[in-house]
Amino acid sequence: MHSLQFSIPLLPTSRFKRHSVRCASDRQQLFNRIAPVYDNLNDLLSLGQHRIWKRMAVSWSGAKTGDSLLDLCCGSGDLTFLMSEKAGADGKVIGLDFSKEQLSIASSRQYLLSKACYNNIEWVEADALDLPFSNGYFDAITMGYGLRNVVDKRRAMQEMFRVLKPGSRVSILDFNKSMQPFTALFQEWMFDNVVVPTATVYGLAKEYQYLKTSIDEFLTGKELEKLALDAGFSYARHYEIGGGLMGNLVAAR
Ligand SMILES: C/C(=C\Cc1cc(O)c2ccccc2c1O)CCC[C@H](C)CCC[C@H](C)CCCC(C)C
Ligand SMILES: C[S@@+](CC[C@H](N)C(=O)[O-])C[C@H]1O[C@@H](n2cnc3c(N)ncnc32)[C@H](O)[C@@H]1O
What we know:
Blueprint: H1 24-46, H2 50-61, E1 68-72, H3 78-87, E2 92-97, H4 100-113, E3 121-125, E4 138-144, H5 153-163, E5 164-175, H6 181-201, H7 205-216, H8 221-230, E6 235-241, E7 246-252
Parallel strand pairs: 1-2, 1-4, 2-3, 4-5
Antiparallel strand pairs: 5-7, 6-7
Helix pairs in contact: 1-4, 2-3, 6-7
This protein binds ligand LLAZDA3J and S-adenosylmethionine.
């Protein structure tokens, strides 16, 4: 059971550029910057619930023993470690991200957690929009809180389709852009009154304001299903979880 640690180091005042986080390099720098506090702030701000949502995403991927698996936009490796436990010693998992600092945290956690199965993990620094893998290579793909952050969602979906084996699935976890007024209001209230004020204490106000804006600009569940079908997937279904605050898109090639 993961113990909730709230010892979060203070970061130097953000020299964050004033303009929005529009281009890939700005997002890359953002995730490099938040890497030291990312995991603990997620635990604190979701009261540890994000770990449940991530387990659901991995379960929906259909990952099983002996598989070749990909965790896209792996960050500090939460889903990569869960996929590693699914693949076991006979399988392998690639955790891919373009943030050096996030991958550094992931690699450190792999060493500290030191589970035998984690020897099946390979960390790859690369762009989710230009995957260094051949067609039809993976048995399952997960993407946790990544699709909303890439600058070209259509391209990302096409790349996932390309590297996935026929008949296999992608499982994409992210915030849900809810159409329910109460849920949308609660989510906005949480960001304005809890998430961003808490992040401000750690010098990360603009980074978590970006998080809120990125959700406002994200696709709805139905739009995500269409994005997958347009990329060539034969099946796509978006499930609302966490009381409608989060969503998980499952698509099959
Ligand atoms: C794991 C979670 C978010 C990951 C995440 C994704 C991003 O795109 C970011 C961008 C910029 C900065 C940070 C992130 C980032 O951390 C989800 C849980 C963590 C959230 C920060 C907390 C969200 C709180 C909910 C709106 C309300 C939770 C109510 C209840 C306590 C479950
Ligand atoms: C919010 S974090 C999610 C991390 C992890 N999947 C999780 O669930 O906690 C988003 C991650 O996506 C990565 N990312 C964003 N755009 C990317 C891209 N084009 N290629 C590779 N990684 C990217 C960021 O560096 C960051 O680590």
